[in-house]
Amino acid sequence: MADDKSFQLRIITPDRVFYEGEVMMVEFNTTEGEIGVLPGHIPLTVIVKPGVLRIYEQEGEKEAALHAGFAEILPEGVTILAEIIEWPGEIDQERALHAKERAEERLHSRTPETDIARAETALQRAIARIQVLK
Amino acid sequence: MASMRDIKRRRSSIQGTQQITKAMKLVSTVKLQRARAGAERSKSYFDCMYSTVNSILSKVGHLEHKYLVPGTSTKKAVIVITSNRGLAGGYNSNVVKLITRHETWKKEDLVIYAVGNKGRDALARDGYEIRESTSEVIESPTYPDAMVLSEHLLKAYESGEIGEIYLAYTSFKNTVSHIPTLLKLLPVEQKETEGGAAKSEAVMNFEPEDVEALDQIIPKYVTSLIYGAMTEAVASENGARMQAMDNATSNAEEMISDLGLKYNRARQGSITQELTEIIAGAEALG
After folding, report:
1. DSSP letters of A5-18?
2. Nearest to B207 among A13, A32, A79 (CB)
3. What residue segments make up the domains of chain A, in order of their start?
4. Model pLDDT, residue B268
5. How does residue A1 score in pLDDT terms, banded at 50, 70 and 90?
6. ipTM associated with this complex
7. How confident is the model at residue B63 (pLDDT cuts 50, 70, 90)?
8. Which partner for A30 in A40, A46, A91, B231 could form a disulfide, CB atoms 3.0-4.6 Å apart?
9. Region of B127 on the Ramachandran plot (φ > 0 left; ψ -120 to 50 alpha; else beta)
10. Fold classification of A7-88 (topology level)
11. Is residue B137 within 8 Å of residue B230, measured between CB atoms?
């Protein structure tokens, strides 16, 4: 049952409902920095930045790599509209490591044509994936 | 009167066609179920996206934001979502008609971003400018596909190359009803919210501020609309094909029974004729 210690969390992607349940707290990265949401939060809409999503349930903790989207926070629950999100089991570690190397290389040997914002996002994504796997 | 052999040949050829249309109907029924499940799965995402964007827009009021005021260019970009294959009744031509029969649009002002071969071919034949064409996407649309397309469009929009973006697709109401729809993507139209409706909503805060939030959310909104249109279009395509093939099958059935009747009449006629000939021959001998 819902009490004042937990709230409803819904994570929706374009293809599926990624997560739905009662949670105690949820943490993720936004454009304004990392935030943790507890029950009874003021209404707030935030833009997601690549990072680790931590879900604290009654029974334990879950992690996922959240890459893009935005979140609507209301006192009674949180809805995250995620464009890209992955459970640890869905991540290809090899690929993430390669992506990280590539992005780092691009940032180091930057030329005027380098799309820095894009390389940085790619790097953040790769780091988020690797973090979740650890 | 056609001979027995001709009728028989024609009937068996129609039977062959009927078998094909029947099989195609079954295939599209299965595909429709899958496409429909996909469209329904993603529905909650769009509903949520739509309500969030609306609540943001109702809060910011009238704002001189790049995504809310029309661009200076008279060019209009239209994303045309059709199928790669025909035999789906009026499915493709109805979408094309939305553009060719539009009351105020001029051919020179339009830039077509085609998804699906059929629409591209029809519009290219009519002399429309096809800027981009992706056809494999529509076989099984994914969200990244929509992201690529919306990225291109937003780039052209921001550079002032195009002033408005429209989306032409077939919306899926249910298995039997599919409505060709023309939707304006950008600039986003702000609905006049009445005082009462705005008050009932909780005050929403934004981080970052409203304008920045719009910068981030509107592209996602456009992408999700494109993706939603793609999934609905796939469902509609299969629905339309299922209907078309169902009609074809029952038409074939009708023709077969008609030809069966004609065949029997011809058979009877030939037996009567043979009998008359035998009797006449016997009489002549006797």
Report:
1. T-EEEEEE-SSSEE
2. A32
3. 7-88, 92-133
4. 94
5. very low
6. 0.74
7. low
8. A46
9. left
10. ATP Synthase; domain 1 (2.60.15)
11. yes
CATH code, B24-243: 3.40.1380.10
Contact check, Cβ <8 Å, B48/A17: no
Please give the mean pLDDT across all residues of chain A.
84
Chain A closest CA to B25's CA: distance in Å? Answer: 26
Check if A17 contacts B (Cβ < 8 Å): yes
pLDDT tens per residue, range B145-158? 888 899 889 888 88
A46 — contact with chain B (CB < 8 Å)?
yes
B130-147: buried (b, 16+ CB within 10 Å) or exposed (e) per residue? ebbbbbebbeebebebbb
Region B224-245: mean pLDDT is 91
Residue B50's pLDDT is what?
Answer: 80
Numbered residues of chain B with Cβ closer than 8 Å to any chain A Cβ: 38, 41-42, 44-45, 48-49, 52, 56, 142-143, 147, 202-208, 213, 216-217, 220, 223-224, 227
Can you tell me the distance from the alpha carbon of B145 to that of B228, in angstroms, rounded to the nearest whole number? 12
Domain range summary for chain B, segments of one domain joined by +: 24-243
The pTM is what? 0.81
Whose CA is closest to B134, among B147, B125, B126? B147
Q: Do domains A7-88 and A92-133 have the same CATH topology?
A: no
Q: What is the CATH number of domain A92-133?
A: 1.20.5.440
Tell me the pLDDT tens digit for each residue of A4-55. 788 999 898 888 888 888 999 999 988 888 899 998 888 888 888 888 899 9
